[in-house]
Write a structure and sequence with these properties.
The complex is a heterodimer. Chain A is mostly beta strands. Chain A has no helices and eleven strands. In chain A, the strands form two sheets. In chain A, strands 2, 4, 5, 6, 9, 10 and 11 form a seven-stranded mixed sheet that branches. Chain A has a four-stranded antiparallel sheet with strand order 1-3-8-7, with no helix packed on it. Helices cover about 0% and strands about 60% of the residues of chain B. In chain B, strands 2, 4, 5, 9, 10 and 11 form a six-stranded mixed sheet that branches. Chain B has a five-stranded antiparallel sheet with strand order 1-3-8-7-6, with no helix packed on it. In chain B, about 35% of the residues are buried. The chains are: A mainly beta, B mainly beta.
């Protein structure tokens, strides 16, 4: 089936540094999402993105977070600067159209902030 | 925003028996209820879903029930197998034009041989 790819699979950085998580969504999908999952807990919505714009963001999407998809390349989540509480697995998802179609999840990027 | 409660958090059943997971939601505008299975270190995968115009849906050994009045929905796995051991997440989504999914806290299902 359709696959969402995420790069890297693991990232370890020092607190205060910048990190960019990359997502390669399904090729004809139009809606993109980031979710955060702390170990042993449920996934929580961060942000969704359509037509070059953030459509909705949750309270977890702090000012230090930003998303973009320049020129149809990777859909990225940038955290600058990182904090210890940003350690989690970040899942990217994409869907063809927002309301009626399945969201396909990537394998996740495990981010560890030291 | 939407809140989804999921119980139990841990479930152990004997191989061949049934497993049931129950969820409730708050937002009456939620109209799509997917269930995801997540194996350790893997991404969540959609296994079955139900829309608000249905009360029951079955795919092979998976049955989902939806009670819109009570705002409850449930997953039942009949004739469980060792491969069914995983984390299961229920979720809810509304058609506001924003498409975020609100997940339950998850159920760790273990099938005992």
């Amino acid at each position: 089936g359709p696959k969402v790819l995420q790069i890297p699979s693991h990232q370890i950085i020092d607190m205060g540094q910048m990190v960019t998580l990359n997502c390669d969504p399904v090729s004809n999908h139009l809606y993109f999402y980031w979710y955060k999952q702390i170990l042993g807990q449920q996934m929580e919505f961060l942000v969704n993105f359509y037509n070059g714009k953030v459509m909705e963001k949750s309270k977890l999407f702090k000012d230090q977070f930003s998303v973009e998809r320049p020129d149809g390349s990777y859909f990225t989540l940038k955290i600058q600067p990182t904090a210890l509480e940003d350690s989690a697995v970040y899942f990217c998802a994409s869907s063809l159209l927002g309301s009626s179609y399945e969201q396909y999840f990537g394998p996740g990027t495990r981010l560890t902030v030291l | 925003g939407e809140q989804v409660e999921q119980l139990p958090s841990i479930l152990r059943v004997q191989e061949g028996s049934s497993a049931s997971i129950n969820c409730s939601y708050e937002d009456s505008a939620s109209n799509y209820f997917p269930w995801y299975k997540q194996e350790p270190g893997e991404n969540p995968k959609l296994i079955i879903d139900i829309r608000s115009n249905m009360e029951r849906k079955q795919i092979q050994e998976l049955i989902v029930l939806l009670d819109k009045k009570a705002k409850r929905f449930s997953l039942h796995i009949t004739d469980t197998q060792p491969g069914d051991s995983a984390m299961y997440f229920c979720a809810a989504r509304a058609n506001y034009g924003n498409e975020k999914i609100t997940f339950g806290a998850g159920t760790k299902l273990t099938i005992k041989p």
